[in-house]
Amino acid sequence: MPAPGGAFDDHNPPDAALIGDCVHCGFCLPTCPTYVLWGEEMDSPRGRIYLMKEGLEGEPMSDSMVSHWDACLGCMACVTACPSGVQYDTLIEQTRAQVERHHERSPKDRALRGLIFSLFPHPKRLRLLRGPLRALQATGLDRAMRRTGLLERLSPQLAAMESLAPRLGRPEPLPPYIHASGERRAVVGLLTGCVQGAFFPGVNSATARVLQAEGCDVVVPASQGCCGALSVHNGREEEAQGFARRLVDSFESSGVERVVVNAAGCGSTMKEYADLLADDPAYAARARAFAEKVRDVSEILDELGTVAPRHPLDMTIAYHDACHLAHAQGVRAQPRRLLEAIPGLSLKEIAEPELCCGSAGIYNIVNPEPARELGDRKAANIVATGAQVLVTANPGCLMQVTSAIQRSGHPMGMAHTIEVLDASIRGAPVSTFLPA
């Protein structure tokens, strides 16, 4: 139990046993984005774990403590690198929930976070934002506003939010039920997501088409909402639990064998619903059953094996591992196998693959400067591959890397993994992906 007067209360504090697993060996250091940027011990995983230990032993929660925990991207590269199996992902989520309960943030920070969480986890509100944003982009006012630098001077965080917005196309609503092409091999549910559904509707359409072509009936529950990933990763525990309960309810009666996700951050959280709702007697067993069905789209396609013919795509791509797919879910080989099976396609690996691109949920909004540094570093490594197209599996990564590539002055195509598979199945031209 936490010492009285310390940083933490007795509701799920950072687990002392997990803290004790860290032997401070330093294997995590070269994989930690903030340590790589700044070389500060307290901005490394083992440094943050030391602060958690101090909090458990009675050290009060301070602004300094919180600043080091807030600086963590939650990319989980340290979990992959750790030879002792330290569950840093669990520790930082436990800590952030404590921070949200006990730390008084500045009025400016509260206002920014309030804006973010009143918007991004709400698909209907995001869809309402599409109209004004498309108008800005169509008239060129967004680019004109950036050239003035006014928004950057007023609020770097809001400027970061605006600059990350993708170019919007037409909405692509999905029907509630899509029948498999040919023999049915599986019945799957599709998470349409918040940012994915509003800003990248083409990714959801491509996902449905590929699943259909591979023999899946696809169920798209109209009642589904946010999965709670952003809330979980930022310590908003009760909010995340509410989102999780509603999503379990949405898919529970759909009769699906798997719940398919095409956003890495969402998938990693949904696979952990059993932990998130473990203390809820009405949902604990249901959450566990739901989590066991969750698969990234590359996992389910790899499990089923391909039956739809692939047409050639004569292009070179660089594949970027989304952190919450590679580190949090351990899904690395499956998307590569699917992409390498496309005739004519050449896949290039990116240097420093373990380092986050700087997106990390809302990190690139609340911490724009280090996020920009990481984005520029990732962009340089991507450009160095000589690839024509960057491929990844998360909407946040697509927005972050697109912005960084534009700053680099070396334009290239951007695509979700499933969009490349869809293009090959449909026989679409390579020009689909190349910059205008």
From TrEMBL:
Q: Which reaction does it catalyse?
A: glycolate + A = glyoxylate + AH2; (R)-lactate + A = pyruvate + AH2
In Swiss-Prot or TrEMBL terms, this protein is called Glycolate oxidase iron-sulfur subunit
Under InterPro entries, the record lists: 4Fe4S_Fe-S-bd, 4Fe4S_Fe_S_CS, Cys_rich_dom, Glc_ox_4Fe-4S
Taxonomy of the source species:
Bacteria, Bacillati, Actinomycetota, Actinomycetes, Propionibacteriales
The free-text cofactor remark is: Binds 2 [4Fe-4S] clusters.
- Annotated keywords: 4Fe-4S, Electron transport, Iron, Iron-sulfur, Metal-binding, Oxidoreductase, Repeat, Transport
Residues covered by the 4Fe-4S ferredoxin-type domain: 12-42, 63-86
Give the Pfam families listed for this entry: CCG (PF02754), Fer4_8 (PF13183)
Q: What EC number(s) is this enzyme filed under?
A: 1.1.99.14
- Protein's job: Component of a complex that catalyzes the oxidation of glycolate to glyoxylate.
Transmembrane segments annotated in the record for this chain: none
Q: What class of enzyme is it?
A: oxidoreductase
Q: Which cofactors? A: [4Fe-4S] cluster
